[in-house]
Amino acid sequence: MPINSKFFKRIHIWRYKHISEKNFIFLLSLIIGLLAGIISVFIKNITFAIEAIFEKGVILSENSIYFILPILGLLLVYLFVKYVSKKPSEHAIPSILFSLSKRDGIINKRNIYLPLITAPLTVGFGGSVGLLGPAIASASAMSSNIGRLLHIDRKTRSLLIGCAAAGAIASIFKSPIAAIIFAIEVFSLDLTFASLLPLLIASVSSVITSYFFLGDSVLFNFNVTEKFVIKDTLFYIVLGIGTGIASIYFSKIYFGITSLFNRFKSARQKLIFGGIAIGVMLFFIPPLYGEGFGFINDLLLGNDIKALGSNPFEEYLDNIWIVIGLLFGITIFKAIAMTTTFAAGGTGGIIIPTLVMGSALGNVVAKVINNCGLGFSVSEANFTLIGMAGLIAGVLHAPLTAIFLIAEITGGYELFVPLMITASMSFIINKNGLDHTIYTKELLEKGALLTQDKDKSVLTLMKLDAVIETDFIQLHPEMTLGDMLKEGVSKSNRNLFPVTDHENNFMGIIMLDSIRTVMFDQTLYNSTTVETFMQKPPEFIHYENDSMEVIMKKFQSSGAWNLPVIKKNKYYGFVSKSKLLTAYRRELINFTS
């Protein structure tokens, strides 16, 4: 028995006596918000400390060092994974979503500390990824394990994981409203008062934690000075179209490079190839280094030359079209650098790289409009902001998160109308071009994707093992009718029998109705075999591949009441429609209660 089991038992007893379930959830959401804030502050400070070591040593004054640092960081991550954790880090949001749908919200406790080590090493040494994903992963793992410790049910544990994610976002961006919307849009949480209030408590407590440790400093030093004017509407629509197309490019680059790296046989090969590739990109395009918040701030303040940094084209930067070309290059290569960092073994998130890419694209669109010679003039800072919202809306399929995030972090509520125009256009274009996001594609293929569709979510939460029945008496094709009656029918209360060979390969089924007319004819007992009466089932359930939604459709299309389950090409059992529907109704009640 664990040494602290008596202590926690006393806590449970006291809690059940003195705190209602609702108030207990509110208390937990407050605690989780505080912890998420501390985790976010910790991961940021560690990363900034690593970056400061290089900056104070004037190491980054020479572009040649950009070639070395990413490889060094990825090497340290590789060594840590191989010799310490002995388990590669998972992509934050997809792994959390999988835990919610297929593991009852249970996340391994090692995910609490792994991102806190591997992410700062990746980003601090120049990996072109963000820290938000790892912060969410660590906070969510913390929340999951607190829930397990306190015997929280699955539905509440899922809500608390959403609270952890909201807390991490609120802490990093100081944007509690966007954090709540993110949890609802991306984690598909129910928008009810029962879920909204814990999310709000977690977000606010996390923001307060961030203020306590970091003061009132903000990520982006910008105030909106040029308000929205109606004549710019068409240009914001153009920006929405541009960010929509860019978000499709972002996702396709991610899937393409990931597929390319999957061809490498070992993590060492991925490290070498990826590290060199990132180093080369950083050598020619220094703004790709790290997260890129400094790049965004420089663009917002109009410091284009500073944003571009030291590069081989410095002497040509008095030509605005060279500047536009370089900024567009950052738009193109940020997605490549980010995905290469992931594929090479680095740890990070995609949200902040998406903001960097969107800011560059928005600035490019504004500069093109202002310098095309047609007399148009738009605010480059506003387009930089709204470009971030457009790309977030497209890449994450989360338009409301994008709108409120940009509005909150910049105080840009005056830009609500253009934010809505651009974010909605980008979302529509991406949604029509891609059915899935970076977060959801793999989950969709595994049948593990939770959505706002309650029927589909309930089917996703159901487990196939819970409805498989294995107590059927197996028959063999060479058995005589007499043996079948003696060894099968007389010993079973079933009206269905699987037929298998001696290696457990599935051959067919015998229905009791198909032998009812001959089962009392003793002249056939020795002359007729099982194979005579065997028939093929209308459908099969493939254990490894079929999701519960597919299984439900197979029952509907076949009209069968029982379907055999094949596991590793062998007979495993049967699923009955009645048991499946009973399990579905039970899960639906749990899901909606």
TrEMBL record:
Residues of the CBS domain: 468-528, 534-593
Domain of life, source organism: Bacteria
Keywords tagged on the record: CBS domain, Chloride, Chloride channel, Ion channel, Ion transport, Membrane, Transmembrane, Transmembrane helix, Transport
CDD domains in the record: CBS_pair_SF, Voltage_gated_ClC
Membrane topology label: Multi-pass membrane protein
InterPro entries on file: CBS_dom (IPR000644), CBS_dom_sf (IPR046342), Cl-channel_core (IPR014743), ClC (IPR001807), ClC-type_chloride_channel (IPR050368)
Residues annotated as transmembrane: 24-43, 63-81, 112-139, 159-184, 191-213, 233-250, 271-289, 320-337, 349-369, 381-406
Localization per record: Membrane
Descriptive protein name: Chloride channel protein
Alphabetical list of Pfam families matching this protein: CBS (PF00571), Voltage_CLC (PF00654)
Species, as recorded: Winogradskyella alexanderae
Keyword hit for Zinc: no
Coiled coil stretches, renumbered: none
Signal sequence residues: none
Gene3D superfamilies in the record: CBS-domain, Clc chloride channel
